[in-house]
Specification:
The chain is α/β, with parallel strands linked by helices. It is built from 12 helices and 12 strands.
């Protein structure tokens, strides 16, 4: 199945919206191993940005770095700045846990892949949604929080939200539980919503409904969204810009339509070829990227993709420079895809 690329409406204002997230030169290390290297990315108010790559490429580690949720054994370096709805700035790297706890759930929230890990099995779901608001004092009292929780459950499409609020997580289906998680994530009108594979565990029909809820929720709040996934079709349908990550590095970035129709990095081209089920090799087999993703911190020096790339040369043993207008549009590849290559088969 080929990937549809849906045009996304442009900003209504000619003014450039402010950043709700700015990541500059982010590195994450464990001992001598570098897990993330020189990651730059921005998300502006009202903008939806995708972050794609195979499992083990560093996507979720990037999200945890933004949230300030890294394990104690991991050392972050660089700058991660989150800006809340009322202009609060939080510099995540090096900030005390108390300040980060105040930021999480208020200025930035995260939807994870498996809703049961985000929900307390011993609490009714309405109480859990209300608790998010009471912790950050975005409602005046417990009664208001409970009423607001029911309203949020209604907005995410739970049938009979007043009764649903009284249910425990195990009494709801997977899709219903993920709707509760969406309600919790949007309860305090965050400036930034991070989605880490939020629909992978759901069937296709429910996936589409949850994606629509998420997109409408961020649009209603003029929030920014960072959507992390391995599903290129999802990114094509909900995001405006996309960053391609591999080996803990951003290897390509740009407008979704440009990156998906005219990829420049060999890894991006391989991802697109492998995701298109209508595209086959002459022998009838689907396209794949040769080899497998190395374990964290074990990627080759120089171009991190060179041990899986059929175009790699001795030149690729050194780190390719970033080619482009800036971190939001460009690529880092010694042997980029030519236009005629991109119009051909999808292999890397």
């Amino acid at each position: 199945m080929s990937m549809p690329v849906r045009p996304v409406p442009a900003q209504m204002s000619n003014d450039v919206p402010e950043d709700v997230l700015r990541v500059d030169g982010l590195h994450v290390r464990v001992g001598e191993l570098e897990l993330l290297s020189d990651v730059d990315l921005t998300v502006r108010r009202g903008e939806r940005v995708g972050l794609i790559g195979e499992s083990g490429s560093g996507k979720s580690l990037t999200a945890l770095s933004i949230m300030g949720l890294l394990a104690e054994s991991l050392e972050p370096f660089g700058s991660v700045t989150v800006t809340g709805q009322d202009g609060r700035h939080t510099q995540v790297v090096g900030t005390a846990e108390g300040d980060l706890a105040a930021m999480r759930g208020r200025d930035v929230t995260m939807i994870f892949q498996e809703p049961m890990t985000a929900l307390n099995p011993t609490m009714r779901v309405g109480a859990q949604v209300a608790e998010v608001m009471r912790i950050h004092r975005t409602v005046p009292d417990r009664h208001t929080a409970a009423a607001r929780a029911v309203e949020l459950l209604d907005k995410v499409g739970l049938p009979d939200p007043a009764e649903a609020a009284k249910a425990y997580p195990h009494q709801l289906s997977g899709g219903q539980r993920q709707r509760v998680v969406v309600a919790m994530a949007l309860a305090n009108d965050p400036a930034l919503l991070i989605c880490d594979e939020p629909t992978t565990a759901l069937d296709v029909t429910v996936q589409a409904l949850v994606l629509d809820l998420i997109v409408r929720g961020v649009e209603a709040r003029n929030a920014g969204m960072l959507f992390i996934t391995h599903d290129l079709a999802v990114v094509a349908s909900v995001c405006e810009r996309v960053l391609v990550m591999y080996g803990g590095r951003v290897v390509e970035a740009g407008d979704v339509q440009q990156v998906f129709t005219q990829p420049r990095h060999r890894y991006t081209r391989g991802l697109i070829g492998a995701s298109d089920l209508d595209l086959t090799r002459p022998d009838g087999r689907l396209y794949t990227i040769q080899g497998s993703v190395p374990s964290a911190g074990r990627f080759p020096h120089g171009c991190v993709f060179r041990n899986r790339c059929i175009h790699a040369t001795v030149e690729c043993e050194s780190q390719p420079r970033w080619e482009g207008s800036g971190p939001e549009d460009g690529f880092a590849c010694w042997h980029p895809v030519r236009v005629r290559d991109a119009q051909g088969v999808g292999g890397s």
